[in-house]
Write a structure and sequence with these properties.
This protein is of the alpha/beta class. It has helices at 2-14, 73-76, 108-114, 140-156, 181-193, 211-225, 237-244, 250-259, 265-268, 271-281, 304-311, 336-349, and strands at residues 24-28, 34-47, 62-72, 80-88, 118-122, 160-161, 170-179, 198-202, 230-231, 263-264, 289-294, 318-323. It starts with a helix and ends with a helix.
Length: 351
């Protein structure tokens, strides 16, 4: 029955346009009811600090991190929400990865909203709407710490709408979804602070990077060590597409390549420290975990998925799925609807 409901939800969603910012629309959810989806710009005040075990040094200054809350109207505009999903983007990306406007079938956050889930998509410090003048002023340990601050703000309602709306909702439960390095950041946050109710980790392994992934990271670090503040992961748009995609339609690949970002060099130069930390602390994570991989991911070596599942020795449950034919960017690949279906089924098991 659940599979039928999800299929119906996907069919309805595919026929509807993506909502412009600050508007709402009615769409079918898996239960057959009408879900009024609302999108609102939100702002978080954070400290660029590092209280994790990742050995890197940010500037400890205060910054503003911006994003969007997307979900059913009753959750986004209400006093509280049963669950909020925090979506953490990879290197080279931004919040657009989860909220690809103009392409409704590949808009992960809006499609989850139409199924009844509320999500925060945000630009990490140094990306798009959350600018950072000096890309060496932050690092991946700080990105995990700031994610922790965002989680706590969501739980307390201690953030605000960007355009004068009052009364931001507080979340009873928070689940963090991360893609690639965004998943690594989510892992580091969960290991250090133990304050999330679940992890959806896409296309990341603590020790299973492919040689191509290692080579690209080394090239990016080399650029940073020459004195740059920001550097791309993948020198060209074609390189970027080859790293992330295996089956996505050309229009989706072009849309993503047009939005790709250079990365703060502080993040790029602390990747090794993050990986070292995770190899020691992933075993401490207690929250339930869903691991999703693409069978044709250029950044992950074969066999790494099972190794990653085995690393979560303290988690109450670990579910692993590999999507045949997909590359790294699972929410944007041809099989995006099947990826969302796996996520929604898993979220339902959390209650």
């Amino acid at each position: 029955m659940l599979a039928v409901r999800l299929a119906v939800a996907g069919l309805v969603a595919a026929t509807l346009a993506v909502l412009p910012g600050g508007t709402s629309n009615a769409a079918g959810d898996p239960s057959g009811h009408r879900t009024h989806v609302v999108s609102r710009a939100v702002v978080f005040e954070v400290e660029n600090t590092n209280a994790t075990s990742v050995l890197c040094s940010p500037d400890n200054a205060s910054y503003t991190v911006r994003g969007r809350l997307i979900g059913p109207r009753k959750d986004v505009l209400g006093a509280d929400a049963r669950r909020m999903n925090v979506l953490v983007h990879d290197k080279t990306a931004g919040s657009w990865f989860w909220h690809l406007r103009g392409h409704p079938s590949y808009d992960y956050a809006t499609q989850l909203a139409r199924a009844g889930e509320t999500s925060l998509v945000y630009d990490r410090l140094g990306y798009d709407s959350s600018p950072l003048a000096d890309g060496n002023a932050t690092c991946l340990g700080a990105q995990a710490d700031m994610l922790h601050q965002v989680v706590q703000h969501l739980k307390s309602g201690g953030y605000h709408f960007r355009h004068g709306h009052r009364g931001t909702p507080a979340a009873e439960h928070v689940v963090v979804h991360g893609h690639s390095v965004g998943a690594a950041i989510a892992e580091a946050e969960a290991a250090a602070f133990d304050d999330v109710d679940g992890l959806v980790l896409m296309s990341w392994t603590d020790s299973g990077a492919s040689q191509r992934a290692v080579d690209e990271a080394a090239q990016q670090s080399s650029t940073c060590l020459k004195g740059e503040d920001y550097a791309p992961y993948g020198k060209t748009g074609a390189d970027f597409r080859g790293l992330l995609f295996a089956s996505a339609p050309d229009k989706i690949q072009r849309a993503a390549a047009a939005r790709r970002n250079a990365d703060p060099c502080g993040d790029a130069l602390s990747l090794t420290q993050l990986v070292t930390s995770l190899n020691l602390t992933t075993r401490d994570i207690e929250a339930p975990v869903l691991l999703l991989f693409g069978g044709r991911d250029a950044l992950t070596r074969k066999g790494a998925a099972q190794d990653q599942a085995d690393a979560f020795t303290s988690s109450v449950s670990v579910t692993e799925h590999t999507q045949r034919g997909a590359g790294s960017a699972l929410p944007l690949e041809k099989s995006a609807a099947r990826t969302r279906a796996h996520v929604l089924r898993w979220l339902e098991t959390l209650g």
